[in-house]
Amino acid sequence: SNPDFHPFSRLRILEELAPNVAFYKAFVNVTAVKTDDGLVLVDTGSFHPIAHKQSFDAVRGWNQSRVNTAVYTHGHVDHAYGLPPFLEEAKARGWARPKIVGHVNVLPRMKRYVETAGYNTIINTRQFGADTKWPTQYEAPTETFENRHAFEVGGTRLELHHAKGETDDHAWVWMPK
């Protein structure tokens, strides 16, 4: 029996879906977009150290460019907490920290998670049947938006649109190219 395996984990593979766009499939997902000025990550993966190492390794197996921008589609811990290995890499290589973009309600969610860490630890340990220590550290968005936000990285345009989906801080991403 592998102690790192959990029955709810997914495939843990990265596939190139289109030229310059890769998708890491796992219990958490990460989309990496290669641009002429570094990578854009749409969602960054999980807070769990094993999970974010796996997503980091998968992305790095596909492309070694610095991460220019990270987009949080919402503030859940399996979408917006996987940046630590990329940040450590940026620091070690002398790269600029990535810009982090999210809806205005992402930061209040992250702050609530700190306040409710004990409760969330108990609930998630029960839910997933594995010891879970809820995170109290996070990387807050450096740029926020309310309804729509468009930006370009290395010739690639991304458009973010707020829509209540799974959460009140949810956004969907459109890449016209």
Describe the overall structure:
- This protein is α/β, with parallel strands linked by helices.
- It is built from 4 helices and 10 strands.
- β2 and β3 (30-35) form a beta hairpin.
- It is globular and about 45 Å long.
- The mean pLDDT is 92.
Keywords:
3-stranded antiparallel beta sheet, 4 helices, 177 residues, single chain, alpha/beta, 7-stranded mixed beta sheet
**DSSP strand count:** 10
Q: Taking Cα atoms only, what radius of gyration do you get, to the nearest Å?
A: 16 Å
Q: Helical percent range?
A: 25-40%
Order of helices and strands: EEEEHEHEHHEEEE
Poorly predicted spans: none
Shape assignment:
globular
Proportion of residues in extended strands:
25-35%
Strand order of the largest sheet: 1-2-3-4-5-6-7
Largest sheet: 7 strands, mixed
Termini separation = 45 Å
Query: Which structural class matches the secondary elements?
Result: alpha/beta
Average of the residue pLDDT scores: 92
What is the count of helical runs? 4
